[in-house]
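Quick question, first post here. What does this chain look like in 3D?
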Amino acid sequence: MAIRKIWLQQPIAFARAGGSSDPVPAFRWTFPDLRPRGSARTTIYPESSFSVDNDTGSLTQVDEPFILFKDENGIRPVCPFFELHGECDGQDPLDSRLTEQDLRNSNLSLADIEWEIRHANHKAYIATHSEGDRIEASLQFRGDDHAIHVLKGYSPKDAPRPLVFPESCGIAMGSLRAIRPSAQFPHIRLRFTAPKGHAYGPRDLDDRLRQVPQSRNLIAWLLDWVLLRFKANDEWKGFTLPSCQLILNPQAAWMDYKLVRYSELPGALVRLLFNFRAAVALFRARDTQLSELMRFAVGPLADVGKLPPGLFATWRGNGAILSSLGLVDDLGDGIISCTLRGVGTAKARIVVGPPHFSPDRRPPISIADDLIDKEDRGGPRNCEWAKADNLLLAKLEIQDLLDRAFETAGASNLDAWAEQRREENASAAIYRGDPDVPFNAGQPIWGDLSIQTVTDLPLFARGTWRHRRNSAEEFFEQVVRDNEGLITQWIRDQDDPQSVYYDKRMPALMRGSDRRPLHLTRRQMAAFQRWFDAIRAEKEKEANVEIQQSAVRAANLKSRDGAAP
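> Answer (accepted):
Ran it through. C-alpha cells below.
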C-alpha cells in the first residue's frame, strides 16, 4: 500500500485571539427561533469537540451542554485543527484522513512527517517599507514531536533598525502542537493555538507619553502647542503596558511614522484652492470620511497604506497631525506545511484575527461567499440549478442568506449608520460633481423616523422586524410571488452606476472593502435570480392550473344548467 498524495483539511482556517487558556469548543448555527413566542435569535448549538491533554498531547472528546465564549480568565480563543488527508490504495472512499497505521502500511512513521510554519505580521512594514519593521516567525519539527512549540516573532536578522530585537524575548504569536494519535483518535492532526491578543510597545513608551513634542521650526512648534493646548492626546493619559510587553526598539522606523505631516499642509492648501468643490465635500463629511480627508491632505500620489488611521494607535504632535505611537499586536497570518517523506508537501493558510464579539451574528457576505463566487460563479446560472430536484438546495441557500441578513440587522445601530450614510452621499455627490444625484442626501435613504415613534432606535426596530419576517420561508416566498420587480427594487446591483451611493437596496448602509456600498457577490445575485424565477414559475403554473380548473367548473355548470329536468 502506498500513499500517492496528501493535503491538509482545512486549506484555510481562522484563529481568534483570547486571553483564556481554554479554547472555544466546536459549535454550529441553527435556524432563528421564529416561533410566535420565540426569541427570533439565531441559536448556537454545541457540537462534539476535542480537548488536548497538556501532558501527553493526545485528544479527549468534550461535550459541553452550552457554549461559553468568555470565562474568568478572559475571552476564549479559537484554536483550529489541521488534519492530514491522503490518497492511498485500499482506502475507504468516504474517509481520506490518514492514520499512523496508514503510514506503517506505506513503510513510514510519524518521524517521516515534518511540520513547518512561516508566519508574519507586516502591519508596520506596510506603512514604513523598512525591512526592520517586519515581524516574522518560523518553526520546524517532526511529526513524532508532540511538545508545544511557541511561535516567536522577530525582525529579520541583520535588518537595519529592527523593530523587535533578535536578543529580546520576541512577540508570542501563538503555538503549534502535533497531536499524538491514540486508539480512539488515530488520525494525524496539528493544532494552532491563537495568541492572547496582546499589544506591544517601545521600551520608552512611558517617556514618549510624558514628553512634550520637540518641533524643529516655529510653525510646527505652534501647531504642536495648539494640539496640546486642546488636550489632543488626553485619551492616552494613564495608558501603560506590562514591562514584558515593552520590548520594541525606540529607534525603529515605525516609531517615527507620520501619516500627515505639518510640512504637507501647504500642498493641501494649494489643492484646496484648485479643488474647492472637493474640499468642501470632504470637510462636510469629515466625521464619516476621515480617510478621504487624509488622502486629500497628503496628495493623490502619496502612499497611504495605513488608512483609515483607526487601524493603528496614533497621537498628535511632534511635527504631524497623526503620528504612530509605536504599538503592534500579536496577530498575523502564515502558511503551514506538512511534508511526508517520499510523497510530497501539503500546505494550508492560517489567519489570526481579533475575537468575535457577536458569534451569533453572521455577515450577509463572508469570505466563504467570496471564495465560492470564484470557484462556482456559474453554478446558479445553469438553468437546472433551481429546478424541482435542486429547488430544495436553492431554497436552503437563499434562506441562509436571509437569516444572515436578519442577524446583521440585529447587530447594527441602523439609525446611526443611516445618519452617517446621508452625509457620505452628500459629500460624494459634490465630490464627483454628479448631476443625477438629488441634492437631498437623505432622499435615497430612510429619513429621520424619530418623529413617528417613541422608540429610541426606530430604524433599528423597523429593520429587525422586517428582516425577521423575511426569515420566515412562507412569508418571503409570498413576497416574491407578489412582487415581480423585487430584485431590481430591493437588491443592489453591482453594475448599476448609482450603486456608488447608499440607498434602501440591500445590503443597506453597509460598506464594502472598496469603500463603496456593499453588494452581494455575483453568484449570490445569480442564485437569487434563479430562485426568484423558480418561485414565479410555480406561481404561473398554479395560476394556469386554477384557470383550467375554473374552465372545467364553468363547463360543468353550463352542462348542468342546460340538462333536461
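The mean pLDDT is 82.
The CA atoms of residues 544 and 550 lie 10 Å apart.
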